Amino acid sequence: MISTLQKTIRPVWAVRGLHRSAVEVLKRPAPEDTVTASYGKFISKVKPQHLSPVVLHRSKRMVLDSIGVGLIGSTTAVFELVLQHCQQMYAPDHISSVYGRGGTRLSPTLAAFVNGVATHSMDFDDTWHPATHPSGAVLPAVLALSDMMPANSKPSGLDFLLAFNIGIEIQGRLMRFSNEAQNIPKRFHPPTVVGTMGSAAACARLLSLDDSRCGHALAIAASLSGAPMANAATQSKPFHIGNASRLGLEAALLASQGLEASPLILDAVNGVAGFNAFYEDYVPQPIASPGADGHVFLLEEQDIGFKRFPAHLGMHWVADAAASVHNLLVGVDHGTVSQAKVHEILLRVPKSKYINRPFPESEHEARHSFQFNACSALLDGEVTVQSFSPAAMRRPELLALLSRVHIEHPKDNPANFNSMYGEIQVTLVGGEVLRGRCDTFYGHWRDPLTNDSLRKKFRNNAATVLPSEKVEALIDVVEEMDKREDCSALLSHLH
Fold this sequence. Notes:
two-stranded antiparallel ribbon; 6 strands; globular; four-stranded mixed sheet; 21 helices
């Protein structure tokens, strides 16, 4: 009788309609050869000596540029708003420094948040391929965590750079799990997905977590990831970078306290979405554990893109194309094109809805407008920080040019930062047609900024809030970072 009754009882998971695969994931321990386990092991085991001279050079350039755009970003209205919010809504916790504010300190997570917001507040931060903003999600978290550590236990400069590079590496590896991630995004803003994971990885390493806890840090971060592209070109977009930095740090801190999460978060498991919830064509691959032969970081093979002016990366192609037509009209000397000479403007650009904005109404929309940036460069010969001021945006001659713009999306011009181009055709009132085209702008990873150009950008940005002696000291500190016993000098020059 008992045996007959036992046969008729259905498992609880079946009665409740749960997927068997979900139950199996909960019950099954993660084997050593899972994708997730390989990432935890990599974060824990990679060594400073695995950083090649090329990776060290490129990552120090990223650190310098990111600090610079964060410092100028600390002058923006959106930064001031979030800083006041943090000060008013949270108890004082004077631990971690804030960009450009010498008398202000916050908790590590809030400092990571506001400094991340500053970094992206003008869309001036670096861009990688596949498309994301890698530094802004990682650097503020690593700085805030370093500030939290006792004075006699600060990370060495080399350990600081290793943690930073781990955060960059994890982002790049995760984006290579998906072909969708190769293109300009449509659904999720990439830094809110891979940036949070990169921040968690960098902080887990700086906290010296073991393999398992590094994996848990990634899994916790996955539950704190994701923001929609609809908030691009709004004041909320900088929050994407701020939250990625902050929440990645929180994930690592929680993992250090013993909080656990899915040991298969990066693996493709039928019926249960892990990290593949963010990408429809997700094919994860394990990362090799670095051995005696070392590890080749993606930054060794794929350089970074640095922006010459504060706008979405795609704007740099049309701006350079338009500037070339400006030079045809007025020469290379400074001058302004007369809008009365222009009959029609045709732009040939990739199809991407959120950066096709004919008449932007705010600086954030203008930074995401093919039309605005092309017309600004056509009118003035360049796009600068001042191009997005209210006075510059309201100029009658600029508005007149905007009204004459038409857009085409050629099939051979994909929405992909590695293969797109920008083309402009200007028809003058007399019928003459002038054309400009940019296939690779100066600052793209195929034509990177020289050290002189990068330092000029940094000086211009940092000088908005720091005295010249601190600006020059920061340049020297970052350049010698891998040789410093600790990162205290860097932390002391940020405000």
